[in-house]
Specification:
88 residues; mainly alpha; 57% helix
């Protein structure tokens, strides 16, 4: 018997998580951040960041539903000179 978490159970959890995300966002029409909060605090008890990484990884593997993860938002890198353009 190997130590650690069972990989098959983790895969089942990840698929269930994606299906619940689809339920909350597509069927119940909740905003994605509200759905993440419910999944994190009421259903799966893992962080919202971890949930999003699971959804991004698993969304291509589930064929019977169209799970659309929220794209990663990158902050623009502004220099001090660029910021001067916005000052009056």
């Amino acid at each position: 018997m190997t130590k650690g978490r069972d990989k098959e159970l983790i895969e089942l959890r990840d698929e269930a998580l994606c299906r619940r995300y689809y339920y909350w966002t597509e069927e119940k029409r909740l905003r994605f951040d509200d759905a993440l909060c419910i999944l994190s605090k009421q259903e799966f008890f893992i962080s919202e960041e971890r949930i999003m990484s699971i959804i991004r990884r698993k969304c291509r593997e589930i064929k019977d539903i169209q799970v659309r993860p929220v794209p990663k938002v990158r902050m623009p890198r502004l220099t001090a000179r660029q910021l001067e353009l916005f000052q009056k």
